[in-house]
Amino acid sequence: MRRQGEVTQQDTGPRSTADRLVEDRRALQMRSGPSSMTLSDSVYERLLQQRIVVLGQQVDDEIANRIAAQMLLLAAEDAESDISLYINSPGGSVTAGMAIFDTMEFIPCDVSTTAMGLAASMGQFLLSAGTPGKRYALPHTQILMHQPSAGVGGSESDIRIQAELFRRHKEEMAALIAGHTGQTVEKITQDFDRDRWFSAQEALEYGFVDHVVSRAGDLPHPSENGSS
C-alpha cells in the first residue's frame, strides 16, 4: 500500500535525461512544498526537454555550472542531435564563461547559438563560439565586444601577477574571437580595445553570427539538426 505523500513512478518505457530531471524536480517540489519551484523553473525545464538551454543573465559560476551540467546531460542522452543555446546576457566572469565554452567544445553534438536582446562581452564570445553555420541573431539584438576587464589591487608583486593574467586573458580571447569570426587577431585586438557595439546585421557582416532571423520557422528544430 502506498503511504500518504509517497511518490511512485509507473514504468512507461525509456525516458530522456530531461524527462528524468523534470520528474526529479517535481518529486522534490512535492516534498518541499509548492513554493520551491517557480514558473521560471518550470519553463526552463520544459525548454530543456526540447534541447534548448537559456543563458538569460550575467555569467557567473552558478549559471556556468548549471549550463555546463545541462549540456553534458543532453549530450549523454543524444550525442547526435543539436543543443540550442539562447543568449540574452550582459556578460560576466571570464573564467565562468570559459567553463561554458570548454563544455561546448567538449561535447560531441553541435551547439547552435541564438542572440536575443543583448549579447555583451562574454555573451558575445559565447554567441560567436557556436557551431559554424548555426549562429543566429534576432533582428534587434545588440552585440557588444570589448576586452576582458579586471580590478587590480594588493601588493606590488600581486599587481604584477594580476596584470600578467589579464594580458594572457586578453591575448587568448583575441585569438579565439579571431578564429570564430575570420577576422585577424590584430583587428580583434584593435577593435575590442574599447567598447564596440554591433547591430544584428553588423554582427553578421563581422562574423559573429551566420544568420539574422526574425521568425521561429527560420530556425531549425534541435531534434532535426545533426548537420549544417
- What is the CA-CA span between the terminal residues? 53 Å
The largest sheet, given as strand count, sense and whether it forms a barrel, is: 7 strands, mixed
Indicate the proportion of strand residues: 5-15%
N-to-C SSE series?
HHEHEHEHEEHHEHE
* Helical amount: 40-55%
The total count of strands amounts to 7
Structural class: alpha/beta
Poorly predicted ranges: 1-12
| CATH fourth-tier homologous superfamily of one domain | 2-enoyl-CoA Hydratase, Chain A, domain 1
Cα-atom Rg, whole angstroms? 20 Å
CATH class of one domain: Alpha Beta
Mean pLDDT: 84
User: What is the annotated CATH architecture of one domain?
Assistant: Alpha-Beta Complex
Compute the number of helices: 8
GO biological process, one term: protein quality control for misfolded or incompletely synthesized proteins
Keywords: Cytoplasm, Hydrolase, Protease, Serine protease
Family: Belongs to the peptidase S14 family.
Subcellular location: Cytoplasm
